[in-house]
Amino acid sequence: MDFTKLPSILTPDLGLLFWMLLAFLVIFFVLGKYAFPAIVNMVDSRKKYIDDSLQKAHEASERLENIRQESEAILQEARAQQAQILKEAAETRDAIVLKAQEKAKAEGARLLSEAKAEIEGEKQQAIRDIRAQVAELSVQVAEKVLREKLSTDAEQMKMIDRLLDDVTAGK
Fold first, then answer.
1. Are the C-beta atoms of residues 159 and 149 closer than 8 Å to each other?
2. Rounded to whole angstroms, what are the CA distances from 50 to 1, 61, 63, 65?
3. Taking a C-beta distance cutoff of 8 angstroms, is the pair 11, 3 a contact?
4. What b/e sequence results for 82-111 when a residue is b if at least 16 CB atoms lie within 10 Å of its CB, and e otherwise?
5. Residue whose C-alpha is closest to residue 150's, from 160, 165, 164, 138
6. Residue 3 CB contacts under 8 Å (≥ 6 apart), including other chains
7. Are 92 and 84 spatial neighbours (Cβ–Cβ below 8 Å)?
8. What is the full per-residue pLDDT of the chain (171 aa) written as tens digits?
9. I need a labelling partner for 11 at 20 to 30 A (CA). Which of 26, 43, 99, 149 fits?
10. Please, are residues 151 and 160 in contact by the beta-carbon 8 Å criterion?
11. 43 phi/psi in degrees, rounded to 5
12. Which string of DSSP letters, residue by residue, matches 58-116?
């Protein structure tokens, strides 16, 4: 292949290569002096920002995990307290019910005792009333019978003799 017949745009001469190399080195120097440090600083700051963000995210994740564990512990404690409160409430309820039952039994026994005493008192009063009425009726009947039997003096004397004989015989 013969490079001499190629167009000049594809085969640059030595002067053009010199000036292109010089322009490249100047631009490379300017970029190296001013642009690359700025770009490196921006990349470093971005890297630092990303690293800080990752660190903060990691710390937040750890805090979140700690908070989750604490909330789980608090929840477990709350459940335990709830169970304890329910147990105490059930015990209190049972004690109150038992106490109320005992009080009701005692009150029932007291009322029954009072009712029995009242009934016994009324019974005794009724018996006294009946005895008094029977005694009064007996006296009235005996009086009527004696009046009828002892209507004469002879019958009265006979009755007195018989009563005296009974009294003296009983001694």
1. yes
2. 55, 16, 19, 22
3. yes
4. eeeeeeeeeeeeeeeeeeeeeeeeeeeeee
5. 160
6. 11
7. no
8. 566 676 666 667 788 789 899 999 999 999 999 999 999 999 999 999 999 999 999 999 999 999 999 999 999 999 999 999 999 999 999 999 999 999 999 999 999 999 999 999 999 999 999 988 888 888 888 777 777 776 777 777 887 788 788 888 875
9. 26
10. no
11. -65, -40
12. HHHHHHHHHHHHHHHHHHHHHHHHHHHHHHHHHHHHHHHHHHHHHHHHHHHHHHHHHHH
Over the stretch 14-44, which tens digit does the pLDDT of each residue have? Answer: 887 898 999 999 999 999 999 999 999 999 9
Q: Which residue is listed with tokens 């209507």? A: 151
Total count of residues recorded for the chain: 171
Which residues, 6+ apart, have CB-to-CB distance to 146 below 8 Å?
A: 159
**Cα angle 10-14-15, degrees, rounded to a multiple of 5:** 110
Q: Is 77 helix (H, G, I), strand (E, B) or coil?
A: helix
End-to-end alpha carbon distance in the chain: 187
What ranges make up the beta strands (E) of the chain?
none
d(CA 162, CA 146): 14
Q: Please choose, from the candidates 41, 61, 59, the residue with its C-alpha nearest in 3D space to the C-alpha of residue 49.
A: 41
